C-alpha cells in the first residue's frame, strides 16, 4: 500500500466479514504466496491456494503490485522465522497481533470509515476525556484569523474521541470542484487546501460540495459594522460578469492549518492538555497511537 486505505474481507457463510484494514506501508497476499512456495510439484494441484481475501478501496488508494515471480524468488527467501509464523497465522484469519483486532480499535475504525474521516490529511480530533472546554484552541484560532475562528468545536463522537468540524484538507477535495474563480486551491508546498479571500465571490459552491460541512459562509461587515453589499454572477453572451446585490457580501471561510505560521496550527499549540491533534489519516496508526498515549 503506497497510500490510501483498504478494507480486507473474507468469505463468511453467504456473505463476507471484515478481517483487517490496511494503510500505507502494509502488504497483501504474502500469506498465500508463501504457502504455495512450500509445495512441491506433486502437492501443488491439490493444495495450491488462491487468494483468500478481498480488498475494497475506501476512497483514494494507490497500490504497488509486485509480480509473483519476484516475490517468490527475492522476497520470500529472505523472510525470517517470525515473518513466516505471522504469514502462516494469517491464513486462518486476522493476525493475532494486528493493531485493529481489539473490540475498541475495531469500533473506532468503523467510526472513522462511517464518517469518511480516512479522506483527510489533517483531520481534527479532540480527546473529550482531556478537554476541559477552556476554549484556548478557539481563541488561538480567532487570534490568528482576524477574530474569525475557522472551526466549530462540535462533531460526531466515538469512545470519548470527537471528530471535530474543521477542514480535513482531503486527499481528494471535492470542495475544489466547480469554483468559478479558482479561489479555492491546494498549496504546492504545504499541500493545504486554502481559499483566496480576494478572489472568492461568495457563491458557496465549495461549501455546498464539502461533504463534511466544514466550510462556512460568513457575512462581511465594513468598519462601521454595516453589512457589505454582495455580488452575483450574470451570464450574457457567453460572458460572466459580477454585479452588486442588496444581500450582504458572503465569503467562504475554512481552516487553512495556519499556513502563515511556521509553528503549525495554532489550535494544537494552544491546547494545554494535549487534547487536540491534527492527524493524517493516510496513516491511521497516527490517531491510534495518539489515543493510546499516556
What does the model show?
The chain has 9 helices and 13 strands. It folds into 2 domains: 3-98, no CATH class; 120-291, no CATH class. Mean pLDDT is 81; it is low at 94-101. A 4-stranded antiparallel β-sheet has the order 5-6-4-13. Strands 2-1-3 form a 3-stranded antiparallel β-sheet, with no helix packed on it. A two-stranded antiparallel ribbon has the order 7-8. The chain starts with a strand and ends with a helix. The radius of gyration is 24 Å and the shape is elongated. By secondary structure, it is of the alpha+beta class. The longest helix is centred in the middle third of the chain and has 12 residues, at 103-114. A hairpin with a 2-residue loop joins strand 10 (229-236) and strand 11.
Cα separation of the termini: 30 Å
Shape: elongated
- Radius of gyration (CA) equals 24 Å
Q: Classify the secondary structure makeup into a structural class.
A: alpha+beta
**Number of extended strands:** 13
Q: Helicity level, as a percent range?
A: 10-25%
Low-confidence stretches: 94-101
Strand order of the largest sheet: 5-6-4-13
Main β-sheet: number of strands, strand sense, barrel status?
4 strands, antiparallel
Order of helices and strands: EEHHEHHHEHEEEEHEEEEHEH
Proportion of residues in β-strands: 25-35%
Q: Count up the helices.
A: 9
Arithmetic mean pLDDT: 81
- Total domain count: 2
What secondary-structure arrangement, pairings included, does this model have?
Layout: E1 3-12, E2 15-22, H1 30-37, H2 41-47, E3 53-62, H3 68-75, H4 81-90, H5 103-114, E4 123-127, H6 136-144, E5 157-158, E6 161-163, E7 184-186, E8 193-195, H7 205-209, E9 216-219, E10 229-236, E11 239-248, E12 250-253, H8 266-270, E13 276-279, H9 285-291
Antiparallel strand pairs: 1-2, 1-3, 4-6, 4-13, 5-6, 7-8, 9-12, 10-11
Amino acid at each position: 500500500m503506497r497510500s490510501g486505505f483498504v478494507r480486507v474481507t473474507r468469505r463468511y457463510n453467504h456473505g463476507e466479514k471484515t478481517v483487517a484494514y490496511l494503510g500505507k506501508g502494509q502488504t497483501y497476499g504474502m500469506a498465500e504466496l508463501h504457502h504455495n512456495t512450500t509445495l512441491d510439484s506433486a502437492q501443488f494441484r491439490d493444495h495450491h491456494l488462491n487468494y483468500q481475501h478481498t480488498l475494497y478501496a475506501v476512497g483514494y488508494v494507490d497500490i504497488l503490485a509486485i509480480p509473483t515471480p519476484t516475490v517468490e524468488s527475492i522476497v520470500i527467501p529472505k523472510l525470517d522465522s517470525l515473518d513466516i509464523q505471522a504469514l502462516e497465522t494469517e491464513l486462518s484469519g486476522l493476525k493475532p497481533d494486528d493493531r485493529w483486532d481489539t473490540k475498541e480499535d475495531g469500533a473506532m475504525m468503523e467510526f472513522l470509515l462511517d464518517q469518511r474521516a480516512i479522506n483527510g490529511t489533517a483531520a481534527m480530533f479532540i480527546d473529550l476525556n482531556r478537554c476541559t472546554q477552556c476554549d484556548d484552541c478557539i481563541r488561538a484560532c480567532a487570534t490568528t484569523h482576524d477574530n474569525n475562528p475557522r472551526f466549530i468545536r462540535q462533531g460526531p463522537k466515538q469512545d470519548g474521541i470527537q471528530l471535530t468540524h474543521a477542514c480535513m484538507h482531503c486527499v481528494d477535495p471535492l470542495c475544489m470542484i466547480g469554483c468559478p474563480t479558482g479561489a479555492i486551491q491546494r498549496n504546492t508546498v504545504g499541500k493545504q487546501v486554502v481559499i483566496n479571500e480576494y478572489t472568492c465571490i461568495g457563491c458557496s459552491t465549495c461549501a455546498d460540495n464539502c461533504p463534511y460541512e466544514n466550510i462556512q459562509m460568513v457575512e462581511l461587515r465594513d468598519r462601521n459594522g454595516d453589512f457589505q453589499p454582495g455580488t452575483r454572477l450574470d451570464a450574457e453572451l457567453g460572458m460572466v460578469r459580477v454585479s452588486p446585490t442588496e444581500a450582504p457580501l458572503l465569503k467562504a471561510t475554512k481552516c487553512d492549518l495556519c499556513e502563515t505560521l511556521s509553528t503549525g496550527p495554532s489550535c494544537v499549540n494552544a491546547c494545554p492538555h494535549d487534547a487536540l491533534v491534527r492527524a493524517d489519516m493516510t496513516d491511521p496508526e497516527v490517531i491510534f497511537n495518539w489515543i493510546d498515549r499516556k
